[in-house]
Amino acid sequence: MGLIDLKTNLRSLSYGTGRGEPYITRPLPAYDEDPGNPFLGLNMFGRAGQLGRNLTDVERLTKYLTNGKGLLFNAKQIALEKTKPKVPYGPKRNFLFSTVLAQAGVQGTGIHFDRTNSLNVDNDQKYDYLTRTAFSEENANRLTLLYNSKIVKTTTNPKARNEFGITGEGDETTIISYAGGPNSIGGLGKTTFTRSDRNNTSKWDKRPELRNKVLALTPNNLNEFYKGRSNTTGFTSFSDGGGITNFILALNGLSNADSNTKKRILGRITRYDQFNRAKTFKTGDQGKDKLLDRQSYYTGAPQPTAGTDIINFKKVYSSTKGVNFEKSSEDMIKFYIAVLDNNNPEKKTYIHFRAYVEGIQDNYSANWNSINYAGRGEEFYKYGGFNRDIGFSFKVHVSSRAELFPTYQKLNYLASIMAPDYSSPGYMRGNIVELTLGDYFNDVPGVITNFSYNLSDETSWDIARNNDGTIDENSAELATLISVDSFTFKPIHKFIPEKVNDPSNPQSKFISLGSGAKGYAPTPAPTSLNPINPTPPTPTLQLPS
Fold this sequence. Notes:
Helix content is about 20%, strand content about 15%. It is α+β, with helices and mostly antiparallel strands.
């Protein structure tokens, strides 16, 4: 700051008018003056000067509130709070300047006031308490209130329903409506959530082609859909078996739309109570085994339960009739290795893994030998051969106690394939295997040239201890996640690798396309479809001759 009227004592300068003069001013201490602490000493509780500063803040905020700016700020805050969504717990939709003043007075003491509520600091006004006590029961939870009001149409706990703004069961089109909220202007007006109804033609006058693209359930649809709802399982019970089912499956039978509209709107119709991971592929449901005695789970020899993955539990087996595709061997994407018996190639030993396969690489290479002719500067090339190798990695997870030993027994057997097999006279022989991975590789013969086991630092281990800390003889200290890295496979083709002369029916099946090398001939691309009423052609399947 420059000099004013040749005065060098800047302490004597005033704020003047119109310069944003503070509400509270105090004289600056002298250069050699110790300001001291008239409120709290160094040996007392709290920081030095804390109480005085808190009282100063209260005085300053009080003066701000009483002038025009403070009153305008208070009105704006009240309007903003009214535009918040309405919830019966947590911060209320109001603003109290008194709680701001109270908080300024107790700052630094650990006391916290909610600026939108009263001066009550008890837990009964906080989110956690209200959620667990007031709105956790069936007759007070928002989802159950919506179900009772809009689906089964029964009056339960009108007071709690009003807290959420849920309209009555007689209101067919409105779901939630309350004063204020995001759709209001400064808290004036209402926020309303309505049900979309594709049968209401007035909504689609400008875009009638969109009517069949909107899928909405009316109250009558919902009542019909949930009329057989099970009170014990929470799933819809149908006359064809009940249980977990596909929402689209039931909706397909209730829709009033024509058949073509349903085909275009509704997706794949699947019975999930008949086709699911746990039932079809025997993956086990580790978190939903109601018959499991969890007190004795770690007592005695491990036994398979409903939470046991059957493929991991399945041991190595030998067969002359091919792979055993019973329920214990089915997988979403089949993956197994068959080891040929060197004494009887018709006999094979099968290893099944429930694995997470990663980084599949199918590498092809052609060898060309270069030749230089006298008098020619460039190189010429002569074809010298063909080579192929396959690589990937996979992870095997042990998800239950019963799977631990069977999984490691299979990993042990897989490792032994890399070692030699000796004939009765004592000659060393290698091991030929057949690899199956989905329908990309189907019983492809070849040899495994390299792989490694990797136990990550993040892998959990079974500690093999009983409840009293003694050693569990029925378990072992082993990792529950095993990574098989850099798995390299050299195929031995059952056909002559050669260029395909008939592209429509190739003889060289580098990619298996299923166990029977099935495929299809694509039909010509259809003409452009009408974007409003598309009528797709009926697809045809053509198998190669």
